[in-house]
Design goal:
This protein is α/β, with parallel strands linked by helices. Helices cover about 50% and strands about 15% of the residues. It is built from five helices and three strands.
């Protein structure tokens, strides 16, 4: 699914650059973001979902999506607050 969500050149660029980790943050926790995240997992990227830099049009949708990431897919998808990502990676 990541292939469909990316311009064809992006995937080549990521690979050429040696990128192995994708940090995903978006203004929506909906199905498109989930599809992108799952596509990245399928392509063997380490995926980190920024848990406090996303939102949804409904709080329930956000909570449900983050619950899926944390409880159902923790081996494939990490979640972390933005402050931890910035601190640990010196961003």
């Amino acid at each position: 699914m990541l292939r469909e969500n990316l311009d064809p050149g992006w995937l080549d660029l990521l690979r050429a650059g040696g990128v192995t980790t994708l940090i995903v943050s978006d203004s929506e926790t909906g199905i498109c973001v989930l599809a992108t995240v799952m596509g990245a997992v399928d392509l063997v990227y380490r995926v980190i979902r920024v848990e406090d830099a996303v939102c949804s049009s409904a709080d329930e949708g956000h909570v449900a999506a983050m619950t899926i990431y944390r409880n159902r897919l923790p081996q494939q998808i990490e979640t972390a607050p933005l402050a931890r990502i910035v601190t640990e990676w010196n961003c």
